[in-house]
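Office hours follow-up: a student asked to see two folded examples consecutively, so here they are.
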Amino acid sequence: MADRIELGSVVGVFGVRGEVRLHLHNREASVLEEPRPVVLVSPEGVERGAVVSVRPGAGKRILGRVNGVTTPEEAAQLIGYAVFIDRAELPEPDDGEFYVADLLGLSVEDEAGTVLGTLVDVVPGHKDVWVVQTDAGEAFLLPSPESVKRVDEEAGVIVVAAGALTLGE
């Protein structure tokens, strides 16, 4: 799935016409405002092609329409599926912006240039938490983006504030 980016997941059913409630890692992203081809991946790893579009719901809800899904029962079968999009479907990020998937594997250093580890995962949530692993295998957590001072994709380096990493559980 290297050429795919995970956008989020199906977390529930909305209404009687087969719409789904979505958790999107970037709620502000507009990529699915128009119907787009995606790949839905079940928790077991089964893939299903689909065309999805989203619209805002009440409060913080994001509601989605999956072509061909017309009943709440069909929508309920998609709960837990991850939503992926082909990289080619995404717009190029603006200067100073990046896709988190492009940062995985980059070296993490403090402002003094001390290598702290490698970015190995991003745990999405209200505030994403980046997981940095040392050469010794220890995992540290980095609250992002407030701890990130600079990202240099060309050099393969993420520079963070001194003392930004906390030992993971």
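And the second, which I mentioned at the end of office hours:
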Amino acid sequence: MISQETIQEAIQRLVKAYNPLIIYFYGPYGWGTPDDDDDLNILLIIESSNEKAHKRGYKAFDALFGLEIPSRVIVFTKEEFDMSSQDITSPTHEIKNKGKIVYARP
């Protein structure tokens, strides 16, 4: 499993890189059932972006470089997340309702 210290470092690096509104963990780390083979699945919500959605995660790759953790990062704008999470068939709906908020901007 990924150590708590490494997880905290990952969160700090993502906050520095994105200044997100919220960071969720989902999947095993979000649901509370991680084991040695699980990725750290992260969803960031940012205020806005002119970047295409599929390119927003590149900054996360750079921010997490060197931590040597398996991770998957998705970055939504607040508007995108709010719209998507209203659809009960959307993964974002499940993340919003069952995911673990690990950071919220004060």
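Two things to take away from it. The chain has a mean pLDDT of 96. The helical segments are 4-18, 28-31, 58-64, 78-84, 91-98.
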